[in-house]
């Protein structure tokens, strides 16, 4: 019996439920529904705009404390001039670089996402992680791959 995309999505749904990763389970469930409903336009939309839409929602969520006044001007100045704040700036710059590397890797080899999902599930189960960064995971994988190239 050939392995179909429906079977893979069902397996990811099951693994997501068993691993208590509601995000992975929900994503697999939604994609399985779209696939079974033959709503191919949704796949096109998600491929073209899904990442931007997801990042927009993430940024909106992160920026809410700025918008609702929970972060003061004093907090902002402190975080731009303190060691933790400067390290956060450095971390943000490094993360965006790694994210771009991860995006390039996923565009060059879309099948790599399966490994990233499995790695995310392992991270949830064994490291208490949260699967919010497939781009970061891909970026770290790209960094590992570059390191591996140089050590050969």
Quaternary form: single chain
| Radius of gyration, whole Å | 18 Å
Extended strand count: 0
Kindly, what is the distance between the CA atoms of the first and last residues, rounded to a whole number of angstroms? 39 Å
Strand content range: under 5%
Largest sheet: none
Order of helices and strands: HHHHHHH
Low-confidence stretches: none
Q: Characterize the overall form.
A: globular
Characteristic key phrases:
UPF0756_TM, 152 residues, globular, single chain, transmembrane
Tell me what the structure shows:
Helix 1 packs antiparallel against helix 2 and helix 5 (83-108) crosses helix 7 (134-151). The protein is mainly α. The longest helix has 28 residues, at 40-67. It contains seven helices and no strands. The chain has helices at residues 5-18, 22-36, 40-67, 73-81, 83-108, 112-127, 134-151. It has a domain at 72-152.
Provide a concise account of the structure shown.
Helices cover 83% and strands 0% of the residues. With 152 residues, it is mainly alpha-helical. Pfam families: DUF441.
Detail the topology: elements first, then pairings.
Elements: H1 5-18, H2 22-36, H3 40-67, H4 73-81, H5 83-108, H6 112-127, H7 134-151
């Amino acid at each position: 019996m050939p392995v179909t995309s429906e079977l893979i999505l069902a397996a990811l749904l099951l693994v997501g439920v068993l691993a208590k990763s509601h995000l992975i389970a929900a994503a697999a469930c939604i994609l399985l529904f779209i696939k079974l409903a033959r709503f191919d336009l949704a796949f096109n939309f998600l491929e073209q705009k899904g990442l931007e839409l997801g990042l927009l929602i993430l940024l909106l969520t992160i920026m809410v404390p700025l918008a609702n006044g929970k972060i003061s001007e004093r907090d902002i100045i402190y975080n731009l001039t303190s060691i933790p704040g400067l390290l956060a700036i450095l971390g943000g710059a490094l993360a965006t670089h790694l994210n771009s590397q991860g995006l390039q890797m996923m565009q060059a080899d879309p099948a790599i996402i399966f490994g990233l999902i499995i790695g995310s599930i392992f991270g949830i189960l064994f490291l208490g992680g949260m699967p919010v960064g497939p781009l970061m995971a891909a970026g770290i994988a790209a960094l590992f791959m570059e390191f591996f190239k140089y050590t050969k």
